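Nucleoside-diphosphate-sugar epimerase structure dump, as promised
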Amino acid sequence: MQTILGASGQIGRELARSLKRDFTSEIRLVSRNPETINDTDELVSADLMDASQTQASVEGSEIVYMTAGLPIDSQIWTERWPVMMRNVIDACEAHGARLVYFDNTYMYPQTSEPQHEEAPFSPNGPKGRAREMITRMLLGAMAQGRVEAVICRAPEFYGTGKTKSITNSTVIDNLLAGKTAKVFLRDDTLRTLIFTPDASRAMALLGNTPDAYGQTWHLPCDDNRLTYRQFIQLAAEVFGVAGHHTVLKRWQHWLASRFNPTIRETEELLPRYKTDNVFVSDKFKTRFPDFRVTSYQEGLTAIRDEQADR
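structure tokens r here:
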């Protein structure tokens, strides 16, 4: 049995499809309100803040994927992430399950330095500190031999379905609606973006590769990095829209954040938009040379086609 905790988000949904296609039909989907992805899925309703519910969700699992998400709220992240991670580690230890953790880069320095797996942690705000805390919690459990785990780290993502990201909400969704795309601070710095189905396919592969455990892996991205200006131009061509965009200056972001809590929660991430963001996934590509990374052209085309089918 392979179990996905937080199966209702887009990463979890794509992961369920990848596991069924390439590895197993014994899949358990766990969330507050799980929905069937494959016709053979087992559904379990659980709250990962509850230790006993987490234990019951993990029981009988060979591999557990932690893909749960939380609303972009600093207080919620600070209060809930440590509890959820502790419950998941304890459950995997108790039931002898291997753990595959979907991580992000919030704790990395927000500089132009290329980001490798050994990059130091230097968070710029409470959400980054929360992610650093739970990652170190897992690394400690791995070092103590309590749990066999693999950390799968992804940069900013974009994608199909229910993908929730800054790029989807400020750029892609606006362009598809015929509105002006919005970019924070600068549109001429290089971005590294991962397509959500690629992230899930890579996680499924790592989870089913025994010698991948005990390590951190950067999930594979298109190395043809684009600026947001170039990304918007490409998206406009693919979507068949005008492709207008505006760059929100620092003072405009500050003003908007006074009235919009969601914008306010992006404040600690602003330094990453001032400079090139170079997330390096060479380790994964060397280990899995046959893994095909989706190009930006292909990813945007998939988003367009999905939109047309709705």
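The chain has a mean pLDDT of 95.
lmk if u need the other ones
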